[in-house]
């Protein structure tokens, strides 16, 4: 009997493991990523402000203004690329680009399908009530509700294990990669929901691997 494929979530994460990772570069990525962390600090300040504006727009019109949607999606995309390079995955040695836009040849991707209409009622309870069960999961995965995956939590710990494996064997264990990507996918689905970018509730499901489940090959 064929099992039904999971529906494609509007928040989509994809990643490809770098086949030639350095054994030792991961030890200094915390330093190399500092310029990104500085920029992301200001981007996240702006993200909070634009999210407040979007909240009232959705409340009164049922629509998320497209320029604000694209900006906030871009901030999450940028954060994911930096996390993928640094201690949210350590799965590439390619330095992240300084852009909100998707970079087709970069190995980490993130996008959210733009919703033409959003619920005016759900916007009142998404981030502080409906998402609470997921926040408990995120607190464990991230070592607290913080972005972008700077330190602590299960994800960072697994990434460090991958770094140790690189140093010892020159290989990033494929099973570990799939797990780390699945955990990050869960995180970003929840963030997209709490940031009002979608009305689709995040599934309590660990979709592992670099390809988005249900997506066309």
From TrEMBL:
Entry keywords, A to Z: Membrane, Transmembrane, Transmembrane helix
Transmembrane listed as a keyword: yes
Residue spans crossing the bilayer: 37-60, 124-143, 149-169
Domain of life (superkingdom): Bacteria
InterPro entries on file: DUF4389
Name of the protein described by the UniProt record: DUF4389 domain-containing protein
Organism: Streptomyces hokutonensis
Biological classification of the source: Bacteria, Bacillati, Actinomycetota, Actinomycetes, Kitasatosporales
């Amino acid at each position: 009997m064929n099992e039904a494929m999971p529906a494609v979530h509007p928040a989509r994460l994809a990643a490809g493991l770098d086949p030639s990772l350095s054994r030792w570069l991961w030890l200094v990525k915390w330093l190399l990523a500092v310029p990104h962390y500085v920029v992301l600090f200001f981007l996240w300040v702006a993200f909070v402000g634009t999210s407040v504006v979007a909240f009232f727009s959705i409340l009164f019109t049922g629509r998320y203004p497209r320029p604000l949607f694209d900006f906030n999606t871009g901030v999450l995309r940028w954060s994911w690329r930096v996390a993928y390079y640094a201690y949210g995955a350590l799965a590439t040695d390619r330095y992240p680009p300084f852009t909100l836009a998707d970079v087709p040849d970069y190995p980490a991707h993130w996008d959210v399908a733009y919703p033409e209409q959003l619920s005016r009622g759900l916007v009142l309870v998404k981030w502080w009530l409906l998402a609470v069960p997921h926040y408990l999961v995120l607190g464990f995965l991230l070592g607290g509700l913080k972005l972008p995956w700077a330190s602590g939590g299960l994800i960072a710990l697994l990434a460090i294990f991958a770094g140790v494996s690189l140093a010892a064997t020159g290989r990033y264990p494929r099973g570990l990669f799939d797990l780390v990507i699945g955990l990050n996918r869960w995180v970003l689905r929840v963030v997209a929901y709490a940031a009002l970018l979608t009305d689709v509730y995040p599934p309590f499901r660990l979709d592992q691997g670099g390809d988005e489940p249900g997506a066309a090959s």
